[in-house]
Design a protein that fits this description.
With about 350 residues, this protein is of the alpha+beta class. The chain has 12 helices and 13 strands. The structure holds iron/sulfur cluster (2 copies).
Length: about 350
C-alpha cells in the first residue's frame, strides 16, 4: 500500500480507531514536558513534541518488573508480559535505540521478558517536528529512520503522511484504504523534511566521525578529561536513567514473611551509580567517580561498538539536559579527546 495522506481530522479519527482496537501508548504533555503514557483520547496525542523525559525503552524494559514468582518447594513461575500494544509517536533516534536494544537483548542470552514485550508491540514512528534544545541526532545518523518501525508518520503542511512498511503496520492501516495516496508534492516535501532534519538536528557539533570514535577512545584511557569532568559529578545516575541505549539492570529476590514464597525483581541500574560495580565482600572495582565516568563513555563509544558495530549514543540529548552538573554532553567529551591532553 502506498503512503496515505490524512488531514488532521482524519488523522485524529484514525488514532481514535486504534485506541478502540488495542492498548496504545502515545506521547502526551506532562506539564511543560512530554512522556510516553497510555493514550485514551486521540486529542491528547502530541506528535509535535520535542523529546520525552524517559525514552520508550521503558515500555520494553520497565524501570521495575517481576521476572518470576517462587513458592518454595512447589517451584517457580515465570512472569512474561506479552500483552500487545501500539507504541505511537517514536522519534527516529529512539527507533534506532530500540533497534540497538533488540540486538543486544537477542544475542548471547535471549531475554524472554524484553523480547515478549517487543514482539507484541507495533511501533509507529514519527518524524521530528520540533527540535529539542540538546538534540544532535543529525551527527549520529539518527535524525531520520528508514527501518525499525511498522508505520512512519510525517507531518507535511496541514496533513500527515501515513506510511505502513510491515504487515503489522499494513493491518493497522487497512481502514485507510479509501484515503488518498500521498501525491508527488507531499512526498517531495517529506524528502525535504528529512534533508532538513539531518542538517538541523545538530544542536551540538560532533567533530570526530562515528567510525573514528572507538579508536579515539582506545588511545584516550589516560586522558585528563575523565578526572576534570568527574570532579563535578554527583553520581546521581540521571544521565544513564534517561538514556535510550542504556540497559543495565540489577536483579534481587524479595522473600515473603513465610521465608518460602517471593518474587525475583529487576530494576534499572546504571554504571554512574556508586555501587553499580560493588561485588561480594564489598569490593567496588570502580569506586572512583572518574573511573565510573570514563566507563560510561567507553561503553557508549567503544564497548557496545565492539559487540554489535554500533555507537551506543543516538544523539537524543536527554543526558545533556538531565545532568545538573553540566558534564554529560557526549559531544563535549568526545570533541575534547581530539585535543592534546
Ligand atoms: S548518551 Fe545521552 S545523547 Fe546519547 S543516547 Fe544516551 S541520553 Fe541520548
Ligand atoms: S547526570 Fe551528571 S552528575 Fe549525575 S551521574 Fe550523570 S554525569 Fe554525574
Amino acid at each position: 500500500m502506498n503512503a496515505k495522506k490524512l488531514c488532521l481530522n482524519a488523522m485524529q479519527a484514525w488514532v481514535e480507531s486504534l485506541i478502540g482496537k488495542c492498548r496504545v501508548i502515545g506521547v502526551q504533555a506532562k506539564g511543560e514536558r512530554f512522556v510516553f503514557a497510555p493514550l485514551t483520547r486521540a486529542r491528547d496525542l502530541r506528535l509535535d513534541y520535542d523529546v520525552t523525559l524517559i525514552p520508550p525503552k521503558a515500555c520494553f524494559l520497565p524501570p521495575q518488573e517481576t521476572l518470576l514468582t517462587f513458592t518454595g518447594p512447589a517451584g517457580y513461575r515465570s512472569v512474561v508480559d506479552d500483552e500487545p500494544f501500539i507504541l505511537l509517536g517514536v522519534h527516529p533516534y529512539d527507533v534506532a535505540a530500540i533497534a540497538q536494544m533488540d540486538r543486544l537483548f537477542e544475542q548471547d542470552y535471549a531475554d524472554v521478558h524484553y523480547l515478549a514485550r517487543r514482539r507484541g508491540a507495533v511501533l509507529i514512528a514519527c518524524d521530528i517536528q520540533t527540535a529539542s534544545p540538546n538534540v544532535f541526532a543529525g551527527c549520529m545518523g539518527t535524525a531520520t529512520a528508514d527501518e525499525g518501525f511498522d508505520i512512519l508518520l510525517t507531518r507535511v503542511g496541514d496533513h500527515y503522511l501515513v506510511d505502513a512498511r510491515t504487515d503489522a503496520g499494513k493491518a493497522l492501516t487497512d481502514s485507510l484504504a479509501s484515503a488518498p495516496d500521498a501525491d508527488a508534492v507531499s512526498l517531495a516535501r517529506r524528502e525535504q523534511l528529512w534533508l532538513d532534519n539531518r542538517k538541523l538536528l545538530r544542536k551540538h557539533d560532533l567533530k570526530p566521525s562515528l567510525a573514528e570514535l572507538p579508536g579515539l577512545l582506545e588511545r584516550s584511557y589516560e586522558h585528563p578529561v575523565w578526572k576534570d569532568k568527574a570532579r563535578h559529578c554527583f553520581s546521581c545516575g540521571s544521565c544513564v536513567m534517561v538514556c535510550p541505549t542504556c540497559y543495565c539492570f540489577d536483579v534481587q529476590d524479595e522473600v515473603d514473611w513465610d521465608l518460602k514464597c517471593g518474587r525475583r525483581c529487576r530494576t534499572w541500574d546504571g554504571c554512574m551509580l556508586k555501587d553499580f560495580a560493588t561485588v561480594a565482600g564489598a569490593h567496588n572495582f570502580r569506586k572512583d567517580k572518574a573511573d565510573r565516568y570514563r566507563h560510561r563513555w567507553y561503553r557508549k563509544g567503544k564497548y557496545v561498538y565492539d559487540k554489535i558495530g554500533q555507537i551506543a549514543c543516538v544523539g537524543c540529548g536527554r543526558c545533556v539536559t538531565a545532568c545538573v552538573a553540566g558534564i554529560s554532553n557526549p559531544v563535549d567529551v568526545y570533541n575534547r579527546l581530539l585535543e592534546a591532553p
